[in-house]
Amino acid sequence: MISAGIYGFVLGATLIIAIGAQNAFILRQGLLRQHVFVLCLICAVSDALLIAVGVAGVGAIVSRSPNLIASIQLTGALFLFFYAIISIRRAFHPDGMELRKNGGHSRKSAIAICLAFTFLNPHVYLDTVLLLGGLSSAYQGNERIAYGLGAALASFVWFFALGYGARLLGPYFAKPKSWQVLDCLIAVVMAGLGLHLLYDFVNA
């Protein structure tokens, strides 16, 4: 049972530790030190719920619904393009660390954006519900539960480490130029993910 939990943790960590929409957003909020706890909690709990759904066997059902997947792909692509545009506009109007006071999101806005990055991104479902859920079929009973808990724990560890660890980079972001570079990188990541989703939608 312990080995199943470790395997779930390692696999979960491997899937979520990558440059993506969620991670880029949490990194920026961590640098701004705005709503970090609640946003990290939302991401981690959302992953845990989706992993639980996948481990319970729902992933197999979702994989048989191409229309549902296509709808999520198109909606997710449009949202990512929209946020990429926002990031580019922000890059041309940097305010350095003053963004902590004036350039961040309100709590409600940050939560809404975080939820959108989580549930409008088909890759989240692919990683948690389909892939992690599908691989859980190798285990039964308590081992399967341990596997799911291990994968969920990896999500909690990663998001809180990213959100609160980002503040260590604070000194490097005291200059407007650093924020310009970060926002440009975020825009590239968002646009790239959006193009990938759009490509998958067109070629579905």
Outline the secondary-structure elements.
Elements: H1 2-16, H2 21-32, H3 36-55, H4 58-62, H5 66-91, H6 99-102, H7 107-119, H8 122-135, H9 141-165, H10 176-202
Helix pairs in contact: 1-9, 2-3, 2-9, 2-10, 3-7, 3-8, 3-9, 5-10
Quick tags:
single chain; 79% helix; mainly alpha; 204 residues
If you had to describe this structure to a student in words, what would you say it looks like?
There is one protein chain. The chain is mainly alpha-helical and 204 residues long. It has one domain. 79% of the residues lie in helices and 0% in strands. Helix 2 packs antiparallel against helix 3 and helix 3 runs antiparallel to helix 9. The longest helix has 27 residues. About 3% of the residues have low confidence.
Brief characterization of the structure:
This protein has 204 residues and is mostly helical. The chain is built from ten helices and no strands. It has helices at residues 2-16, 21-32, 36-55, 58-62, 66-91, 99-102, 107-119, 122-135, 141-165, 176-202.
**Helix-residue proportion:** over 70%
Average pLDDT confidence is 80
Main pleated-sheet profile? none
What's the total number of strands?
A: 0
Terminal-residue CA separation: 39 Å
**H/E series, N to C?**
HHHHHHHHHH
Shape: globular
Weakly predicted, low-confidence segments: 96-102
Structural class: mainly alpha
The total tally of domains equals 1
Instruction: Note the total helix count.
Output: 10
Proportion of residues in β-strands: under 5%
Radius of gyration: 18 Å
